[in-house]
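Entry 14. Ran structure prediction on the chain below.
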Amino acid sequence: MKIMIKEIEPNKIVSSFFVLDSFELRLDRNNREYILLTLRDKSGAIKAFIWNVSHDISQRLKERTILSVTGYSRFLDNFLVIDVYDWRYAKWDEVDIRDFVEVVKEGINHWVVKLNELVDLIEDPYCKGIIKKFLNDEEFMRIFKKRPAGISIHHNYVGGLLEHTVSTMSLSALVADKYPDVLDKNILLTGAFLHDIGKTKELSGNITVEYTTEGELLGHITLGILMLEEKISLFDEFPQELGLHLKHIILSHHGKLEYGSPVVPKTPEAIVVSTLEGLDAKFNHLHKILKNSDTHQVKSFYDSFLDLKILTERSYKTSFKVFKDGGF
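Output, structure tokens:
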């Protein structure tokens, strides 16, 4: 039976399955070898120790695998850890992959349906055609549907990239309908679809997501441009101005040079895509940190991604009570 890390209590026998994120062979004060492990499931991470180290154990351990671990939980320097008594590699029929990786809440198919509905709103044959080139690419779609949008910041779960793309397209459709006199809905929806396609080649992995060599050396913006150029080359002809505009949307979608964009957005559609995709990323991150925080205990906290101090439910409810009681 799987015990989630967040459910582990101190001073208990623990027997469960965990992803081995990393391990390190160390020496204690008496020069005896021990191994420090970082174990993970979708609820969090925990440090663990193997104290009785045989000569070959560090050679047999492999990162980014699932282990069956038996040990004893205790506090060490105010952190919960596990002293491991026994371990082995788990068999795939023993585990449920959803215990270790989070999957987009509504499910992959839900977002694929929404994606196709949004593509149907596009009337320009070249805009719709370039998206169809990607949708009809089985290998691209296999990866696109499951890849997260990031490793740690936003939409960092299976299907996250798909959800982020569709959400950005949905917001773009609303804004385009609100301001039809200044925005080209076809280009806006197409740019929203294309802006993060490079992440299908920037990131890899199922249990543990990491950067590919291409991702490390080129980044998803450059990879996105290369992928778009490849699809454009499949057309007998493709409007040069449209291709240039779509490339600009990809290149500028981070908004500022210091955020990683080679250029800042300079067209109305590029400005909107940059604004809306950033908005969706921030909202998703805010939801994630509030969902995983005990807002009834913590009064406030600073978040580096949002660069904001966030007041929790406890904080503003306490302030409201003081106001009602005549404290102000």
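DSSP finds eleven helices and nine strands in the chain. Will compare against last week's run tomorrow.
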